[in-house]
Structure formats: C-alpha cells, structure tokens
C-alpha cells in the first residue's frame, strides 16, 4: 500500500511538474503573443500633412530683438530713450554740471515725433572729451572683421572731429576710425565708415572722442557687424538666424505675444511705425521690461530696426509662411486690460486691411507701392493673419466680428487665427464654444504645462471635431517646475514630454494645421521667462534638447499621415512609449517617431508589411542621455544632440532598442 501510495505521489509530482512546465511555456508563449509587434500601415494612408505643421513663434522677450537677433551693437543709438543718456557715459566721468555744459539733449518731437531727440555737443576748450557706449551688456567683436559705423550729424560750427574706437576690457583700442565733418550748411548728413578689428573683444565698449572745438548735433550712432544674415547692411545676427533656418520651419508667427497687446493701447505694437527709414520708426518701451520670472530690464526698448518689412523678409529667407498677429482693440488682459470702444475700432480694422495690402497688394495700390519702395515689388503672398493674442471674453468676440466682416469681404481667401486666451483655463471653454459657433478658420490654443500634462494629453486631439475649425498650437512648452517659475529648465525629460505630445499632434495633422514652441530666444544674462528654445550671449548660442525635438519633427514631417499601432491601438503611453508615423512621397520614405521618456530601455519590433524590399537597412536618429535632467549650455552646447546610424530590416521587420530618456526617428525607404 505504501509503495502504491508513493508511486501515485511520484506520478502526481511528475504530472504537476509537466503541467507546470506546460503552463510556463503556455504563459511564456502568451506573453510573446501579447507583445505584438508595432505595425505600420503604409497603404491605409490618412490625410495630407500641412507643410506649415511645424513652425516658429518670435516675440521680443528675453532680449530677443534689440541686443539679440537684431545685430545693432549700440544701445540707445539715437538718444531717444526716456533717459537719453542711457547706455552712454562720459569717459572719464565728470561732474554733472560739466557734462551739461558740453552736452544738451534737444527735443524735436514737434518736427518728428518718431525721432524726438538728438544730442548737441558744444566744446569751447580743446581738451579730451569722450562718450562711451556700453552696448547690450558689453560690445562683442571678432578679430579681423569689419564693423560698419554710421553717424548722422549736423555741423553747427566747424572744428570738431569724431574719433571712434572699439575698446577692450583692459581699456585698449582694437580698432578705430576718424570722421571729419565737412558740411556747415545746417543740414543733417549721414556718413559711414568701417572699423576693422585687430583683436577679439568679449565685453568692450565704443568710445567716441571729440577732438577740437565747435558745435555739432548727433542723432544716430550705429555699429553693425559685416557678417549679418544674407549680408544685409543693418540686418540680423547671422548665427541666430542660422539656428532658425536649420529647423526648416513651415511658418513664422510674429511679432508676439504680449507685446502685440501692450500694457495699454498706446503701447501696443503698431506695424506702420516699424517700416521705412529708421528715423520714421517710433521707439517704444518693451512690454517685457518687467519680466514674469527674470530680473526687470529698465533699458529694454524696441527700436524697430527689426520691423514688419524685416519679418516678411525673414519669412522668405526661411521659406516659411508669414503669420503676423495684430492688436484687436484690447490691451493685455493680464495687465490693465483696457478696451478700445467699439465706435473707435475703425482704425484698428483699417490697420489690418492695410497690412494685407502691404503684404500682397499690387504696386499700383497705396501700400503695395510702399512695399515696392522698400525694395520688394513682388507680393509676400501672405495667407494668414492673427487677430489678437491670448484675448478672451465677449469683448474679444464682438471685436473679432468687426475684423472678420471687413477682411473676409475684401480678402475672402485670408485665413484668420482667433485667440482663446491662455488655455487651458475657465475662459477656454467659453471661447472654444463661441469660436466654433462662429465657424472661424483657425483656433489658437496655448499650453505651458508640466511634463505629466504633456504625456497624459498626447491623445487630446484624437476625438476633436473633424468638421470644425482647424487648430493652431500657437505657443507650448514643458515647464520643469511650474509656469512662470524662474527655476524652469530646458531638460531632456521636458523635451521628451513635448515630443510625446507632438506625436499626438502629428497623428492629428488633419485638424492641427500649425504648432510652435515658445518662447524662441533668450539671452543668458537678460531673460524674463524660461524655458526657451535657443539661448545665446553676445557672441554665440546653444540649442536646447527641445530645439532638437522641434528640428527632428520639422525635418521629418512627411507629406501624409500613416498609422502605427499596437494591437490595433494608437501608441500613446503603452509601456511608456509614444509613437507616430508618416510617409514622405517626395523621398519615398516611411518615417517613424518613437519617444521613450522612461528611465528604462525598451526593445521593440516594428512590422511594415507593405515594404517592397523585405531585407534592407533603415536610418535611425536618436536624441538621448543617461539622465533625464541632462541639458545643453554655452560651455557644453553639444551635451545632448541627435546621433544617426543604420539598423537592419529583416522580413520587413525592424528590431529596435529604444534607450532610456530617448527620442528616435527611423527612416525607411518604402
């Protein structure tokens, strides 16, 4: 009996062991089956992708304009700041009474309110008298380069020569030129000269030495590098525009942003005062003198050397569609929130109509003729116009209606971008509903949110109304801490959260026509807001991980949407992976984007059943780091950059390793 029992027990153990083995194999097989490969369907192609999908938003914040992309090196070049001596100092310093005996600021606003001041210099005794300009946190020049100096003067009494020197931190000259005024007919003269530098200066100054005696008026003292973008005199900083060009943007939104609204209607951005000769461009204080997070900048003004004509020109250079934004009769609703009465809105609406004529009108039209006179007889071919920035409420809706009626009557083809405030917020739902009832062209949504929000909202647009207005993501960026915090950083993890969200944008490119990260630029010393796409100082710049995410999406946007699924479902967070796929009919490529923001590497297989060649290679470009907090900096600009390689394709399947904290772009010849 015992033997029999033992035999039965052994048989049962063997059976249990076999059963356990079978169960293990079954479960293992089930697990393998459950890990269904990602599948890309290139036959079931969806909507076309708008060429404008990924673009840029420029606002003069963080010293982006004067002292940034606008290459002027002299601060307060025309003495028109409220403090006319801001940026200028006597060198060596003198008592204020002695200063005022020599220098007087003359207010000529009755003659030209756009250029209201000039400096009158009277020297009766031959002695060393100098003025120094500090530039924007110092003047930076490169060894061996020519710098074009412009001086506008009116000689009252002959005898004063003007010697200009570029001075380094050790107070030594690295280049100079002397201007000898010759005319005494009491007319304003413009003279130009080149200062060629014999050394590099990181933080220098421009020294103006007055030699001799006499009386002379000075109105504009300007200094530009010779290597401006496209070699345009008085133009833009070459390296910063190159940063923009390398993204290959589909559009450029300008000039803002909150500066469009102004703190009051009087300080709003008015495009008509930003075109034409510099003396006709009216300087105003910058909306961002008092920053949201960074230090106040009392010397932050807009000279409008970078104005609407230059913006349109830049759009052409970048091969990007122009998207200007105009004030809608409301000042910044975060500030004074002043409202222009409805019966005084006609000039605002007319400004919009005139802008369209300036951009697109024939040279026989009034504003088309002005454009041609500036050097561009051809149309800028503008097709979009934004009415208001981050405005909301019934007061915005009723003013928007005025613009819509006037613009659509005269220019029915013009696509109007309409604001929803600062979304998501309580006003957003009211605005979204109201704008949809109006059947507007394009609704502008803004998102400054945490990484978790971007990751969780990658499927946000999957269920949007496909028959309603198009969507423009006019501003978005991931906050590492919270919106408005000076502690926000441009980390890789934030960039990956943005990339995950962008896969959802790309998947819904049938309703999302445009998207832009914001803000674009920030000076490393003079900033009011963070994070930003590109950081710079007076000589160089660095691109953030978010920049490379934007670039990889923009350069690989394809022409039509394809599907990439797991078990028939979109990939938006499953196993901490986010994905999208497109087809580029121009290159014949399938382009797959995969985001792994987790701290663990993933191994995936991607099937593309319709590939013509079952065995080949694909290129893979990966943006990654071992630490999600990794960042780039001026000292380490290449700490986090994309790296490309090839991977094999076997049986129309790609086995791919997705490193931790990574964004991968795979390109396959179909």
UniProtKB/TrEMBL annotation:
Its EC number is 3.2.1.55. Keywords: Glycoprotein, Hydrolase, Signal. Gene3D superfamilies: Galactose-binding domain-like, Glycosidases, Golgi alpha-mannosidase II. It comes from the Bacteria. The keyword Cell wall biogenesis/degradation does not apply. It catalyses: Hydrolysis of terminal non-reducing alpha-L-arabinofuranoside residues in alpha-L-arabinosides. Residues 1-34 form the signal peptide. Residues 474-662 form the Alpha-L-arabinofuranosidase C-terminal domain. The keyword Membrane does not apply. Belongs to the glycosyl hydrolase 51 family. PANTHER family: ALPHA-L-ARABINOFURANOSIDASE 1. This is non-reducing end alpha-L-arabinofuranosidase. It comes from Niastella soli.
